[in-house]
From TrEMBL, chains A, B:
One of its GO terms (molecular function) is DNA binding. Pfam families: HxlR (PF01638). Residues 9-109 form the HTH hxlR-type domain. Keywords: DNA-binding, Transcription, Transcription regulation. This is Transcriptional regulator, HxlR family. It comes from Mesorhizobium qingshengii.
Amino acid sequence: MSLDHRSGCPINLSLEVFGDRWSLIVLRDMIFGGRRHFRELLNGSMEGIASNILADRLKRLMELGMLTKADDPSHKQKAIYSLTEMAITLVPILAHLGAWGRVWLPVSEELSIRAELLEKGGPPMWDKFMDELRHEHLGMPLDTPADATVRATLQAAYEAVVASKALGASTTA
Amino acid sequence: MSLDHRSGCPINLSLEVFGDRWSLIVLRDMIFGGRRHFRELLNGSMEGIASNILADRLKRLMELGMLTKADDPSHKQKAIYSLTEMAITLVPILAHLGAWGRVWLPVSEELSIRAELLEKGGPPMWDKFMDELRHEHLGMPLDTPADATVRATLQAAYEAVVASKALGASTTA
DNA sequence: AATACTGATTGCATTTTGCAATCGGTTGCA
DNA sequence: TGCAACCGATTGCAAAATGCAATCAGTATT
């Protein structure tokens, strides 16, 4: 944790935390992709993060208090990364960021459906999602019985779009 | 505008826009500081941006459609930078970012009062602020008569904290 | 015993960043 | 008419970050 900051401005300090091209990508994959292991993050990364960058970011995010690391009981050298409350409360920011990107940037249809649903779900959906993340990562009791988790809902919507696009491509070809 | 993106994910694309240590700082100073000129941004920058970095970011933000540049009628070589709608709609994100930073990072009291007020004001205040920015930067008509602008309100609060801290320091010394 | 997988680390070339000095042109003032 | 101050940048250069490929030692599987 670096103690010398450029300024005490909240926006600046936030930028010092994830003002780079990879930190938020790692957190996104953990939050929305449910990834907990190094290899999952490495191979599952859509943007193709390099292993040294990933190792560096995981270390940095741990130093910053956004992640913790624990041993996986099933595999002696397997490590499980967990989100802290600090990282979980990024959900509303990620939702806004996704909503903004969806409006102004050349997003792909299948990758923006999650952002769309999360935007439409609004704060209630974000709260439910954060509750689920606290359960998964912090071992907190789950409020609702959770018939379908937010992540599963988003994932299902994503897969539906992918399937529908594949269908459309085959019928219009 | 680079056409080769790492992925079509909204969060990734947003990160490609301001996933660096300076872009959002420049936008913050324009939005909250009301700065429109190169020198204002250069000398007024709390974090001490270098002139080449500033020039590069202004150029990049223009290419991305976040800023426009116009001649200042009062000074032949003076340029006025304006926010586009794309940049103005970042206000809610900046508000959330400030709120998050205020909770989790070592913010200074005087620099976080703006974030606190903006958080408490919520979406209605953000909308009013965005309306004012559209008036300032895009020449749009102003809805409300605007007794006190949001920026002036935030600035006054900032100065009040600074004054109160100076007072406290002198009386406790 | 062989193979594949675990979380990384190393070396190295390329790219980006940050700092300091400086540029040519404009403006205000004496 | 000179001249200093200011305008938006640009240049040169060192340092840091990034990205890629190869590799590591320990662990599990077969």
